[in-house]
Amino acid sequence: MAKQRANIRDVAKESGVSLTTVSLIINKNDQRISEPTRQRVLDAIEKLSYTPSRLARGLPNRRANTLAILVPQLQNAFADVYFGELISGIYEEAAARGFRILLEVARRDYIKRREYMQLLEDCSVDGIFFLGATEEHKFLKEFDASDRPLLVVNNHFSQWDLHHVVCDYAAAGRDAADHLIELGHTRIAHISGPNDVVLTTRELTDAFVGRLAEHGVRLSKSMIVGGEFQVETAKLACDELLERDPDLTAIFCANDKMALGAYQSLRAQSKQPGKDVSIIGCDDIPVAALSDPPMTTVRMNFFEVGAESCRQMLKLIETKSMDGRINKRIPVELVRRASTAPIR
Amino acid sequence: MAKQRANIRDVAKESGVSLTTVSLIINKNDQRISEPTRQRVLDAIEKLSYTPSRLARGLPNRRANTLAILVPQLQNAFADVYFGELISGIYEEAAARGFRILLEVARRDYIKRREYMQLLEDCSVDGIFFLGATEEHKFLKEFDASDRPLLVVNNHFSQWDLHHVVCDYAAAGRDAADHLIELGHTRIAHISGPNDVVLTTRELTDAFVGRLAEHGVRLSKSMIVGGEFQVETAKLACDELLERDPDLTAIFCANDKMALGAYQSLRAQSKQPGKDVSIIGCDDIPVAALSDPPMTTVRMNFFEVGAESCRQMLKLIETKSMDGRINKRIPVELVRRASTAPIR
DNA sequence: GATTCGCAGTAAAATGTTTTACTGGAACGG
DNA sequence: CCGTTCCAGTAAAACATTTTACTGCGAATC
Which of B299, B264, B297, B292 is nearest to B279 (CA)? Predict the structure, then answer.
């Protein structure tokens, strides 16, 4: 009971080789170690139930083998399916590669103290994922064209040169437009996201409106209302749209939550979603399939966005190559359910 | 441009003192350092924009200044208000004390490989919070009466001797019973949680039934149905209860989600929750106040449970005193809203 | 027979802290 | 004037690894 915990020196002594040899074996860069020696060392590791210290390991090469997920301070950010799926995707991929995940909340004073930088500078973390970024997060400027490993997940920016991985929102807008056109709709409305601060939802809107125009359907500005991505605001938005055009036949909502708000609004006016008015959502969150009627929507595989973000981040860290920024688009897919129907 | 990053040695050289002095100043155990020296060192730190490396700091005393949150692998565990609030509470308190939070998911193979132990053994983490624990998590036995810093958040176990911080579920059961009695109800039912695997919800049920009995109201076994904490299963449970006793006047649900399920069930049978049948929930999640009718419920401050868990954990780590287990109960509070009414 | 090469492994430096035990000198009481 | 105490700080060990440059040796090559 001399020692609490075996270290690499103990293993070396036990198996009669040098530290270096043990280290090489642990790190699997061991072409040059012969099989018998290798086996002896592995036995010693087993016997002493040795685990290399992550702390000490990170020290020489300044690697923590840890990644941070930074989320904005929202009302229960951790209780949102959207963040939940992104985080799961990142986690899964990171865990598979032996990386740990650190959780960080970008509160006001967190940003003011530049703690995200500390994280990188004190070697706590090898890279940072930023979820839920908007154009109001001015501190991102610090990463503009910098070689600091920060990756924006599911949003992107034109004013700053950053790494990002995003769903193909333009394709989503086009898919939604094509679907409604195919069903014969012409009196169409759109409940958008916060277009003033999020580029992706602007792209969604632009692509949707643009594609409708290509098909000769004009969507006037007044039939586009912003909904802040929440059920309640979307309900109000939908009320407003129905007042402006009581005969509209289809609404494209920038996310599924807002589509549920539209359902509520319609019902309150004794209209049936999917029959009287076609509703198409965006995201395909789990409740979309379970809603009544089951929702037609554009599936955005957020889990995959998270996973791909993580793969890209790891590549970034390994290679340290700064030739160009990461700029990956994840494909989307229209899911036809019962909330859209041919025009009568 | 000789160096990338200043270290403590650079600071020492710059300010003409020894490493030790700098270290003492950084760690604020610096009674013995004179003010002028202190100032000189702080200036040097500023000038070189020096940040101590967390990795190197942890090495000598085997402290990572990091805590892990372990959650079970559930359908979108990260997208649940319950976990969200617990995590927020833990995070807040940890951040205030300079601790980082690591996220870990207890998947099947994660448990099999005992990675939670690795976490402690390789010094990645100074302590582990386990959320969403049930009696099916047999691996907890490993921490039974052990001095490993694992803390069970918002559940507890009688079969294993572990640290825990829990809401006072017994008090919640009593409060709910008292409230219904006060309103004159006698035909009462209960939709319970997964009583087979979670002790806290058994306590809730027992306290509720016990208190009713004290007031002379007998709740038969058949009027208690389990609901697995989900909206859908609770709806079915409620259907069943209404079939068994169409004249029941009140239902106590073991959480708010299930109370919402009960709302649905009642409405489907053209009964008005809060008028025809009083419903009382448990948790006071945000939607409870927003539901229709606003829900009477027992508030469980999960944020506070998380925060207190973290405080206890830090105490555990600091003192390393194993005289007794942590066993803290967080008080609950009845919130009267419109889903309960005096019997007619 | 000298030179080169590859093999299997090692010595030692480097990574950046904390902490314990020490030191030289000044003040101070007897 | 001597011993003690205090002050302000320091030297050096410890923490656990990775990595670079090296070494001895036998085999192949010229």
Answer: B297
